[in-house]
Amino acid sequence: MQQNEYRQLVDRLNHYSRLYYTLDNPEIPDDEYDRLMRQLRAEEEAHPDWVTPDSPTQRVGDVIYTTFDKVTHTVQMGSLQDVFSEEELWAFHNRCLQVDEHPSYTVEPKIDGLSVSLEYRDGLFVRGSTRGNGFVGEDVTMNLATIQDIPKKLNRPLPYLEVRGEVYMPLSVFKELVTRQIENEEEPFKNPRNAAAGGLRQKDPKITAARRLSVFVFNIQQIEGETIQTHADGLKLLQSLGFKVIPEFPVYTDFADVIEDIHGIDQRRHENDFDIDGAVVKINNLALRETLGATVKFPKWAVAFKYPPEEKETTLRDIEIQVGRTGALTPTAIFDSVTLAGTSVSRATLHNQDFISEKDIRIGDTILVRKAGEIIPEVLKVVRHAPDSEPFQIPSHCPVCGSKTVRDNDEAVIRCINPACPATIKRSIVHFASRNAMDIEGLGPAMVDLLVDNGLIHSVADLYELSAEQLTGFERVGEISAGNLISAIAASKGRGLARLLFGLGVRNVGEKAAQLIAAHFGSMDRLLAAGKDDIWQKKENIIPGIGEVIADSLLEYLSREETRQLAAHLGALGVKMTEEQVEKGTALAGSSFVLTGTLPTLTRKQASQLIEQNGGKVTASVSKKTSYLLAGEDAGSKLTKAQQLGITILTEQQFLEMIPSDEQSSR
User: Fold this and answer.
1) What percent of the chain has pLDDT over 70?
2) Range with lowest mean pLDDT among 20-34, 228-242, 435-449, 551-565
3) In 3-state terms, what secondary structure has residue 323?
4) Please, which pLDDT band fits residue 540 given cuts at 50, 70 and 90?
5) Residue intervals in the chain for CATH 1.10.150.20
6) pLDDT tens, residue by residue, 355-365
């Protein structure tokens, strides 16, 4: 490799690293990234004079976000050196033997998540931060506080404790999330790690809470009030304090047992509800760790054995085209069944025509497949083309209704634009009835197929004119189930404008956007009368969180004559077309608050609601822009920082004196 090729490799890996660590949107598989990193390290060992500070081998993680306050780690949060073979594992053991003739080791599954630091003072959780670049991370305390696995108060107080853990999204939660994203025709997360990282970096802790994240704590960074000699004893102590740690952390003195356990974890990893990408081997004795020390980037007392991804070859038998609720044509690969991550797999999405063309996927090909994040089947590449195979093209006409399809100018999506397409109607009704929309229990895909195929409904409005007698005429639909469905449909009339708007399936208008729009306009009539300047303006954020793309999609939908007719029809049938609007006071307008400690009478939620109801804003961390710190008992580092910055500190009583008495009584 020439030096210019080395520079190109550094630039490529920096690009991939930024996508992975900073944007939570990896462009290449982990094993390909690992292969390129091994190549880079080999070149740098051969040419040490080539190495520059921007090389990804010279730092941990990637750049840190500016969304949150920075946290300087007292104890560096380094990464682990990856190894990929038994030979490398034995080499690690031999290096340890040079310092101690009888080292002992722990072996733990390597959770594929986001590394965080958790700090406690006098037994209370006071701060949580991301790893960042290993030296400086981000303060995400408010978001971490939403994770149920993180104790807010330890079972017994210690003067100070800092632990390190791995935040992850359980595989069962990830599967539900991806299913919803696919149903809503959103771009699904590539793996649980990225879903977890994206959830932890939300400005709104409520969004983090909705991601249902979990954490495993795996190391003590600093401790006061206890003395521990071994890593295993430290994990036992953490368990007794209320932390969630890996269920098993065996200690071995024979390194052959370490190797055997690593392979055992690999064989059992599909039994867990968390994603494992390897096993971590650590020196158990903490004093020996100090002796072994660390390099600039890695501790010398631990390594991470990375498991190769499970990939299998199979034959592509067909490519099915499915039509979604917005008319999007999605190609799905149908291939000979293979077992991946412990389950049988025979289907995988091919996303769009660009994906198919880029990989030159053809029916009859031998393809390589795997499960992304152990959950989502994906086609990696074509191994070889079948004889006489031909490039595949998504049809120019809808496979369901025969209408001509069109490709969006700004997207790779090909759509059927026939509003009467049965496939589009069915998917839109299923979405309308989904839990986060109108929540009509019993109206699943099978029932929708039955109703549409038999001509009983042609739009969501027709649901509200169904009768139990119409349903009981069908096989396997009894009087009780028919009555329950009609009752569920009737109950959905009162859901309100936000859920109705989300249920109508406007492109780019998700659940949160629908809530913001409904809260702003208050009624369907006002929404239908709105122009673009009422929703979005270039120089003014009319509705916080609503940008031009959402505004354009919403206006395009509202401008259709069929939309106006549908709205009128739904209103005439008694569907609620309004959203209650909470009038905000102005007593705290323009002020931003940070909350810390335990207040005498108010919960954090109650205090936050009072602030927002009176025009104020609640933020997660103290900065120069903070107006007030509302502090209770056991206030932590936020109080210290506020004092350093000269920010006004309020007691609960002082805070309540700033709010009109009628607002206080409503809490």
Assistant:
1) 91
2) 20-34
3) strand
4) low
5) 422-572
6) 999 999 999 99
The strand order across the sheet containing 376-384 reads: 343-349, 329-340, 311-323, 366-372, 376-384
- Strand 366-372 with 311-323, pairing: antiparallel
- Please report the pLDDT score of residue 666 as a whole number: 46
> Quick one: which of 573, 360, 384, 572 has its CA closest to 465?
573
Amino acid at 582: V
Residues of the chain within CATH 2.40.50.140 domain(s) are 311-414
Q: Which pair of structure tokens corresponds to residue 136?
A: 């400086």
What was the pLDDT predicted at 665? 45
- Boundaries of CATH 3.40.50.10190 in the chain? 592-665
Provide the 8-state DSSP code for 494.
G
DSSP reduced 3-state for 72: strand
Asked whether the predicted pLDDT for residue 64 surpasses 50, the reply is no
How do 592-596 and 628-631 pair as beta strands? parallel
Asked if residue 196 has pLDDT above 70, the reply is yes
Cα–Cα distance, 316 to 314 (Å, whole number): 7
Alpha carbons 396 and 376: distance in angstroms, whole number: 28
CATH number for the domain running over 422-572:
1.10.150.20
CB 281 within 8 A of CB 103: no
Residue with tokens 């359980």: 170
Range 553-556, long-range pairs (CB < 8 A, 24+ positions): 553/506, 553/507, 553/508, 553/509, 554/506, 554/508, 554/509, 554/517, 555/530, 555/531
Residues carrying CATH 1.10.287.610, the chain: 3-58
Q: Rounded to whole angstroms, how far apart are CA atoms 278 and 254?
A: 20
Tell me the three-class secondary structure of 575-642, residue by residue. CCCECCCCCCCCCCCCCEEEEECECCCCCHHHHHHHHHHCCCEECCCCCCCCCEEEECECCCHHHHHH
- State the CB neighbour count (10 A cutoff) for residue 18: 15
Could you tell me how many residues make up the chain? Answer: 667
The pair of structure tokens assigned to 656 is 């309540």
Pick the CATH number of 70-306 from 3.30.470.30, 3.40.50.300, 2.60.40.1520, 3.40.309.10: 3.30.470.30
CATH 3.40.50.10190 fits 592-665, yes or no: yes
CATH number, span 311-414: 2.40.50.140
Contact by Cβ (8 Å): 312, 348:
no
Question: Beta strand 329-340 with 114-121: parallel, antiparallel or unpaired?
Answer: unpaired
Instruction: Specify the pLDDT at position 619.
Output: 81
User: What is the model's pTM?
Assistant: 0.53
User: What does the alpha-carbon distance between residue 555 and residue 532 come to, in Å, rounded to a whole number?
Assistant: 7
Q: List, by residue number, the catalytic residues.
A: 110
Contact predicate 14/51, CB 8 Å:
no
pLDDT tens-place string over residues 108-162: 999 988 999 999 999 999 999 998 888 888 898 888 988 888 988 899 989 999 9
CATH code of the domain made up of 3-58: 1.10.287.610
